[in-house]
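[step 3/7] fold_predict: job queued, chain A
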Amino acid sequence: MLVPILEGDPDYADVAVHIVSQTAGLEPTVVSSLEQLSQLIRREQPAAMVADRNLLQGARGVEAVRTVSTAPLVVLTDDPQETVSLMEAGADYVLAKPYPPAMLRATMRAIWRRRQVERRSSGRVLEIGPLVVEPARRSARIEGRRHLLSPREADLLEYLALNSGVVLSRGQIIDGAWGGEPTATPAAVTMCVHRLRQKLESDPGHPRLLRTKRGDGYVLDAPLVVAAER
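[step 4/7] structure written:
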């Protein structure tokens, strides 16, 4: 399965290629520009993507990639202060350069585990009031409109749906939705919830489904129905 690596520094590119190639079933391919990356993922949907922030052209590049692929996106940046804006734009993971190789290795393994979980849950549909969640397709439908989700958004929404009506803390979400991944933080939960509201709520500033319980966490508040495979 293809994993394009957008990296201009030969040393970082070599490290990324080595780590990705060690993960079973993943095939790294180095590209040198955002245009090449976009062309590649239009031809063949990748299993994941690793991209340098500068070659990606920051948050705008993340948004551009998200228009053509929902695959997990790992952004490598030399400015940790950009983490929030990159995640708001749709990055699933943000690693600060210079990063420990073990951190990228753990991230790729987490992505691989997620793919195995998606295969096991293939076909499951969760209905929460007007919201229909299809985890394996990384999508959600509400009021007749289908919204594509990033991997982290899909995992988070599925976890909230399976626990509908239950208030979940950020710590519980990190452990339950994302398996305690090393790059998962409370801020990442907040950003992911923000992106889900932008997609699913008619008025994101006053959410009806995905609500905040101040001091406690978040709740997807509607009766849960597990529908048959579709």
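[step 5/7] annotate
The first strand starts at residue 2 and ends at 6.
The longest helix spans residues 101-120.
exit 0
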